[in-house]
Amino acid sequence: QKEVEQNSGPLSVPEGAIASLNCTYSDRGSQSFFWYRQYSGKSPELIMFIYSNGDKEDGRFTAQLNKASQYVSLLIRDSQPSDSATYLCAVRPSGAGSYQLTFGKGTKLSVIP
Amino acid sequence: DAGVIQSPRHEVTEMGQEVTLRCKPISGHNSLFWYRQTMMRGLELLIYFNNNVPIDDSGMPEDRFSAKMPNASFSTLKIQPSEPRDSAVYFCASSSPPVLNTEAFFGQGTRLTVV
Fold first, then answer.
1. What is the sign of the dihedral through the CA atoms of A33, B104, A100 and B96?
2. How many CA atoms lie less than 13 Å away from A106 in the CB half-sphere?
3. How many Å separate Cα A70 from the centre of its chain?
4. CB atoms within 10 A of CB A4
5. DSSP B80
6. Over the stretch B49-97, which tens digit does the pLDDT of each residue have?
7. Based on C-alpha coordinates, what's the Rg of chain A?
């Protein structure tokens, strides 16, 4: 069973702070990793993807990948109330299942004004 | 492009009734996924199709669930008979052939309530 684990939260941070969201995965051969944001009552939408070890930055968002530790994280700098949502980590596994994405249960983030 | 289109957006039905959910993927996408989302279990993959062919249906909970993709622009997920524990949000997603950065695009979902 290929699993993706996230802390369900809720994670509360004050406005302007850095929010750190973490994800671990069980399939060591996983190829690529995605962070989706889901507002309440809405569908998931892609924020970032990463497939190489290290950091990838896009505006206020930074994704970090450590394949040796099977760990991926998302940092949100200068958090805004509009960032309050559930963040889903998704992993594209290796092998025959590589068409699909396996999702974690998500971490709920609340940014307090 | 209009994105992935699902219908209906909301469905309320009585236990024992048949429910059919519909999905139109993004044109040109050859992979289609049906997911179910609940608070307890998160986002679960039910089935996915590649080039209209079901590739993996191991996530389909039981024989009451069935899915079809008769052509590249249409898929259905059917529950017969429906039960209260089927109440969830059902998402359809589509993607292009997988390379490292291929993302799945989600429809707006169908909120199903079985009473």
1. negative
2. 24
3. 13
4. 24
5. S
6. 999 999 989 899 889 999 999 999 999 999 999 999 999 999 999 998 7
7. 14
Question: Each residue of A93-113: pLDDT tens digit?
Answer: 776 556 778 899 999 999 999
Residues 6+ apart with CB under 8 A from A49: A32, A33, A34, A35, A63, B100, B101, B103
For chain A, which residues lie within 8 Å of any Cβ of chain B, measuring from their own Cβ?
Answer: 31-32, 34, 42-46, 49, 51, 88, 90, 92, 97-106
C-alpha to C-alpha distance for A89 and B41, rounded to whole angstroms: 14
Name the DSSP class of A95.
G
Which residue in A36, A38, A39 sits closest to A47, CA to CA? A36
How close, in Å, is residue B1 to chain A by CA atoms?
A: 16
